[in-house]
Amino acid sequence: MESLSTAMVNDWLRPAVVLGALALPLAAFHGVRQDIRTTEATLRSDFKADLQAVEGRLGADNRELAEKLDRVLETSSVPDGIMTINHKVTPI
């Protein structure tokens, strides 16, 4: 009777150990995959925020330069007798 219970325990224990051994790397891989996705989402969010900030600064710089260029063109001296064309720069 004792050998029968030992055989039954071995029959159940071995597959459980094998499944447990297979489940550990799978669980570790799943955790790593989740970490990668979280990091990717964070990087995307940070990059998007940085890009929007740069776009805002570039737009402001472009408007400022366009205004300066307009002032320079308006105040530039033109010899008498030459027709001038209004050179307005429109910002993008």
Strand content: under 5%
Shape: rod-shaped
H-E order: H
Beta strands, count: 0
Helix proportion range: over 70%
Supply the number of helical segments. 1
- What Rg is obtained from the alpha carbons, in whole angstroms? 36 Å
Q: Decide which structural class fits the backbone.
A: mainly alpha
State the major sheet.
Answer: none
In short:
The chain has one helix and no strands.
Q: Topology, pairings included?
A:
Blueprint: H1 2-75
Q: Main traits of this protein?
A:
92 residues, mainly alpha, 80% helix
Structure explained in plain terms:
This protein has 92 residues and is mostly helical. 80% of the residues lie in helices and 0% in strands. The chain is built from one helix and no strands. The longest helix is centred in the middle third of the chain and has 74 residues. The mean pLDDT is 82.
